[in-house]
TrEMBL record:
Its EC number is 6.1.1.22. InterPro entries: Aa-tRNA-synt_II (IPR004364), aa-tRNA-synth_II (IPR006195), aa-tRNA-synth_II/BPL/LPL (IPR045864), Asn-tRNA-ligase (IPR004522), Asp/Asn-tRNA-synth_IIb (IPR002312), NA-bd_OB-fold (IPR012340), NA-bd_OB_tRNA (IPR004365). This is Asparagine--tRNA ligase. The gene is asnS. GO terms for cellular component: cytoplasm. PROSITE patterns: AA_TRNA_LIGASE_II. It comes from Desulforhabdus amnigena.
């Protein structure tokens, strides 16, 4: 095919291209014919939010016939001259000299008409929803953030490690697992972890990963600083606006690192990623501010400008107890922070991101480092306004004896985690890491209330379409 210019590049280079010929391709958002014999077509190619206005003179016989077939949703190529636009809302427009139609879209059935559709409806047409302003903007921000995650770690000398998707360790306590099996249902008799699994593909029970942390630890204890970034699976049977069964998580793991430095890196990462959205996704951010969440830009700017708050779990609990809020879950030392507690702390008390540190030992998995008080572990959760938890992390237990004691306490068999124990027998070092959910970060940076809108194909209980 002959080269065409992306519409984003056309706008970027408009001064230089004025008066010159350009070729663009994309999908039609709208077409409107004026009485004066001009057809106005709004064309979008996904390279930016803005449409390019195409002007078609209906007195040109070679174009008139083609234009009659152009409707919302159809795809086409246009050649024409770039002109300054007299209309408001755009600086340039393309005066068509040639139009080639690729595919039509029957107006009687094309689901995306020029009106606002509910997000729920759009999820049912996930094959077409990236052609809407909102989902297109999300896709561009998601792309930029993914790239920025790699840039952040690569700039700091971290190695990208590919941890497995199929695993036999379940990262104890991270969430409900999906079982991976090739057994036919009729051969699935026997207990979960026992007989049936012996005849299964791996000869033992296997699962989709709930976290790459344990394997990332292996590489941190050889390469220093590493990160893994990939899909993660949890059979969360809860229908909330912030949980998916399949989501993407970035998990750095650092050798010779304690909780304080762990927190510093997490803060630097979040601030950098928010900054990238502010500087590199301006047009999409403007859209979210205008149509989704008016306070979004202010919130994001504040995140970049000021350091996060830190509060111990114990102090956080006091703050919750003192509040006049009526929470539906208990606020007693030893009970987990629920979304309502998290949001109260970050939205009402601190009004900014807050790191809650040093959780009760009983609440957290065996691998978190036991503090000197022996009641708490060196864990951290970072909470942000509008969402609650966005990061969960900890310093890991590097002392062999304490790790074994923790395993015993939590009923985790050292035989099942032989290799994990050996990492403490051979050249153990203090180390720490955390997990940041990409979709939660996207909710935070786009203002979209439901996590199902920030991943292309959401998987939730009862939904694995497309
Ligand atoms: P929550 O308490 O919100 O269910 P969690 O404590 O189970 O989260 P972690 O195990 O600490 O989560 O996972 C690290 C990060 O991964 C979380 O801070 C969050 O950003 C993200 N995350 C966890 N579970 C999900 C999920 N089901 N869908 C989307 N993101 C998730
Ligand atoms: Mn957590």
């Amino acid at each position: 095919m002959k080269k065409a210019i992306r519409i984003a590049d056309l706008f970027r280079r408009e001064q230089e291209l004025l008066g010159r010929t350009a070729r663009v391709r994309g999908w039609v958002r709208t077409r409107r014919d004026s009485k004066a014999g001009i057809s106005f077509i709004e064309l979008n190619d996904g390279s930016c939010l803005k449409n390019l206005q195409i002007i078609v003179d209906l007195n040109l016989p070679q174009l008139t016939e083609t234009v009659q077939k152009v409707s919302t949703g159809s795809s086409m190529q246009v050649e024409g001259v770039v002109n300054a636009s007299p209309g408001k809302g755009q600086s340039i427009e393309l005066h068509a000299s040639g139009i080639e139609l690729y595919g039509g879209a029957d107006p009687a059935t094309y689901p995306l008409q020029k009106k606002r559709h509910s997000f729920e409806f759009l999820r049912q047409i996930a094959h077409l929803r990236p052609r809407t302003n909102t989902i297109g903007a999300v896709a561009r921000v998601r792309n930029r953030l993914s790239y920025a995650i790699h840039q952040f770690f690569q700039d700091r000398g971290f190695y990208y490690v590919h941890t497995p998707i199929i695993t036999s360790s379940d990262c104890e306590g991270a969430g409900e697992v999906f079982r991976v099996t090739t057994l036919k249902p009729e051969n699935m008799v026997g207990n979960e972890a026992g007989e049936a699994a012996a005849g299964d593909f791996f000869g033992k029970p296997a699962y989709l990963t709930v976290s790459g942390q344990l394997q990332a630890e292996i590489y941190a204890l050889a390469l220093g600083n590493v990160y893994t970034f990939g899909p993660t699976f949890r059979a969360e049977n809860s229908n909330t606006s912030r949980h998916l069964a399949e989501f993407w998580m970035v998990e750095p793991e650092m050798a010779f690192c304690d909780l304080e430095e762990d927190l510093e890196i997490a803060q630097a990462l979040i601030q950098r990623l928010v900054e990238v959205v502010l500087t590199d996704c301006r047009e999409d951010l403007d859209f979210f501010v205008r149509f989704i969440e008016p306070t979004l830009r202010d919130t994001l700017e504040k995140v970049v400008e000021s350091p996060f708050e830190t509060v111990s779990y114990t102090d956080a609990l006091e703050l919750l107890k003192k509040s006049r809020e009526s929470f539906s879950f208990p606020v007693d030392w030893g009970s987990d922070l629920q979304a309502e507690h998290e949001r109260y702390l970050t939205e009402k008390v601190f009004k900014k991101p807050v790191a809650v540190v040093h959780f009760p030992r009983s609440l957290k998995p065996f691998y978190m480092r036991v503090n000197d008080d022996e009641k708490t572990v060196a864990a951290m959760d970072i909470l942000v306004p509008g969402i609650g938890e966005i990061v969960g992390g900890s310093q890991r237990e590097e002392r062999l004896d304490v790790l074994l004691e923790q395993m015993k306490l939590k009923g985790v068999s050292p035989d099942d985690y032989r290799w994990y124990v050996e990492l403490r027998e051979y050249g153990s070092v203090p180390h720490a890491g955390f997990g940041l959910g990409l979709e939660r970060l996207l909710q935070f940076t786009t203002g979209l209330p439901n996590i199902r809108e920030v991943i292309p194909f959401p998987r939730t209980p009862g939904h694995a379409d497309f």
